[in-house]
Write a structure and sequence with these properties.
The protein is mainly alpha-helical. Helix content is 68%, strand content 2%. It is built from 13 helices and two strands. A two-stranded antiparallel sheet has the order 1-2. The chain is globular, with a radius of gyration of 21 Å. The chain binds 3-hydroxybutanoyl-coenzyme A. The site of 3-hydroxybutanoyl-coenzyme A has 30 residues, from helix 2, helix 4, helix 6 and helix 9.
């Protein structure tokens, strides 16, 4: 008789050999739960992430910028859908996940609880927020759970366009009038620290990291990815002729990395617990969008039912 110990041992061996875990494979309950937690939180982040940018579609300064922004927001919706589908393979329903998001029970990324105050925020969100997201997500293309890894491949291709368009938009502002340059710097100042928080708590406070790394759900720790992000952005910001709002940011020869200042962790946990500047508004907006979309879901279901009956009649 196979005991649980043997199952866990062969499961870990599979992971160590880089064999993907598929939905019908045996997996420890904790592996299933942790993937479900992470993938659903990720899906919710994509969906809530549409709100701060959607806010600017009607105010984009040109047709070109408007077309780019619409495409980007649509991409986020698509990412949410791939990820909900991947999460469903772990035994939950999309309806349940949406209910958890709309009731405030489920988490989503802290970053989407900050307001987008000026047009320059669209550039800063693209460059910094999508830039942080993509570092984390490139690693997830090699995550051990097959459906999650496959969903991430396409998502990453689109995210890299998001980051580039953000940087390019800020580059234009950085070469503009004094008012445009000030707006660009102000957006960078406001989005820098929240972007660093996206990577999650420090490694010694990250409750899930050790096990997730052992199971190759995560390939790098929160602090490793955060450092990679700081090193990348500290160089890119020079091309904009702007600065990052951190007096302690300094190249460290010995470490071969940039040193940077302490993140305000109190602010981070406050936002995660629902008390950030926009948490309440985001949930109101999500619930409104969900309620207003009821007729679309009902119409799609009615159409699917009609088609099924038609096919049935044809077959008989
Ligand atoms: N915002 C909100 N909650 C966060 C958080 C953040 N930035 N960072 C961590 N947390 C939460 C975790 O969810 C966890 O809570 P839980 O145990 O109740 O679920 C707790 O804080 C402790 O953190 P851990 O480090 O132990 O958690 P993880 O091991 O899950 O690591 C993570 C956190 C690095 C965000 C990881 O979950 C991950 O890689 N997720 C997938 C990527 C993702 O969700 N990115 C979000 C942004 S997506 C995006 O930006 C869309 C783009 O199109 C713009």
């Amino acid at each position: 008789m196979i005991c649980i110990f043997d199952l866990e041992k062969s499961f870990q061996e599979k992971i160590d050999k880089e064999i993907k875990i598929e939905p019908k494979d045996w997996m420890p309950e904790a592996y299933r739960k942790t993937n479900l937690r992470q993938i659903s939180q990720h899906a919710h982040s994509e969906i809530v992430g549409m709100l701060p940018e959607g806010n600017w579609i009607s105010r984009a300064p040109s047709l070109k910028r408007k077309a780019i922004l619409i495409a980007k927001v649509q991409d986020e919706a698509g990412h949410g859908l791939y990820l909900y589908s991947a999460a469903e393979t772990l035994g939950t329903s999309r309806d349940q996940m949406v209910e958890d998001l709309n009731s405030g029970k489920a988490k989503y990324s802290s970053i989407f609880n900050y307001p987008t105050l000026t047009w320059a925020d669209m550039g800063a969100v693209g460059w910094l927020v999508d830039g942080a997201a993509i570092l984390n997500q490139v690693m997830l293309c090699r995550t051990s759970y097959g459906p999650y890894a496959r969903a991430m491949v396409r998502i990453c291709k689109e995210e890299s366009f998001h980051q580039r368009q953000g940087f390019e938009s800020l580059l234009v502002l950085s070469k503009g009038t004094k008012a445009q340059r000030d707006m660009c710097q102000d957006a960078i100042n406001r989005w820098w620290w929240p972007s660093l928080m996206m990577f999650g708590p420090k490694d010694n406070e990250s409750t899930n990291s050790d096990q997730s790394i052992k199971w190759k759900i995560k390939r790098k720790t929160n602090d490793e990815l955060r450092q990679q992000f700081v090193d990348m952005v500290a160089e890119q910001v020079k091309l904009l002729g702007m600065t990052l709002p951190d007096p302690n940011l300094k190249w460290n020869e010995e470490r071969n990395h940039y040193d940077f200042g302490e993140i305000n962790w109190e602010e981070f946990w406050n936002v995660v617990k629902g008390n950030g500047p926009c948490n309440k508004q985001r949930l109101v907006d999500r619930n409104k969008a969900h309620d207003e979309g009821t007729w679309v879901r009902e119409a799609a279901l009615a159409y699917a039912e009609k088609r099924k009956n038609k096919l049935k009649t044809k077959a008989t």
